[in-house]
Amino acid sequence: MPNDPLSYLPLTESTFYILLSLAPGKKHGYAILKDVKDLSKERVNLSTSTLYTAVGRLLDQDLIERFSDDGEDVSPGLPRKSYALTELGRRVLDAETSRMQKMVKEATLRLREAGREKFLWPCSCTCSRKAIGKNIAKNCGLYLGWRSIML
């Protein structure tokens, strides 16, 4: 597998959210499904089939690794498998996040040039409001601390 994170870009939305879900630490499949749904504000709702197809591909690409939760699982049946980002997976996620930030910055600058400084920007926080122009909520996930970008 290539070791250059840029060779994996761009990521699909579902792949991005799966990797993002694993950024804080290892999770089992059902926790990934729930987290992806929450992170995407219910826009991405993966089926188990889609999740495990993507997980298999990410394992093959060495972007994630599998752990057996032997001893940790007290429920009957098969032991759960947990997944975590590899170092390469973390670098790919960082590269994709940076790529998307650059795209938003370029789009913002282009819209400013076109005289569209006061366009509606969807607020991604739980309030579901829309922020206008410079009035982006500080707790909004789209704000990302880009104080230098003037909308």
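Second entry:
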Amino acid sequence: MGTGGRQKVARSARPRPSRLPENKCGFSWDELDDIVRLTTEHRHILERAFYYGIGPGFSVPANVPGEPLGSCSFACGRGQRLPRSSLLWSELIGAHAFKRARCLRGAQKAAAAAPHLSRRELQCLQLIAAGKSDWEIGKILGISEETAHQYVKRARAAYGVVTRAQLVVHGLRDGRISFEDDLDPPC
């Protein structure tokens, strides 16, 4: 069996945590028995990984509502120790990697399905997601409240929605905005 076949089996059958320890984002693989009920198939996958030179590891789950589940895993070579002092860095790297992957996925989805928004309409969408009123949007962007209202109205019309909340939901689905976006005013 080629490498592609091994990866396909491992991806489709890898253990998924049913619950994560409280107050913890990432987890080391030696904690798996405490987090998820490992099946015989899961144990076989871990044994095969060890056979191919993969030692202890650490996984960072990335579960964002409304988006596919994912994780970023880091492994040491067989016989090496997991550097516990580096686990915080692993969490930061994993979170950043998933965010970038979401941007790529969002850009692909947006290009295929999202309606066109002008630069100003997109800025208004971002500010609406940050909870700003038309008056606040106008002040931030240096335009009148009425002009801001018209940009918001056109953005809602482009998506075929009635409310600002619906507009934000569509922007999230398209990847134009994110739960993790920096909410500073756009340039």
